[in-house]
Amino acid sequence: MVFFISCYFQIELKTAPADYRFPTTNQSRHCFTRYVEFHRCVAAKGDDASECEKFAKFYRSLCPGEWVDRWNEQRENGIFPGPL
Q: Which alpha helices (DSSP H) does the chain contain, by range?
């Protein structure tokens, strides 16, 4: 999907690629998995690892902002329910 803001700028919107592990239209689990994959990658390779950026793009395109805010707060408080 391509939107034209003006005659000078072109913005291309993308989302995470299809993943065979998540065949249904409900993408909640896909969102959560990508969020966890990003934070595992950062933990293993460091904050500046460019390899982790793809996971960040994936979870940001799939996950509602409210969920991400809540998960970030849970991680900071040490009560995140996922396997990091």
A: 28-45, 53-62, 65-76
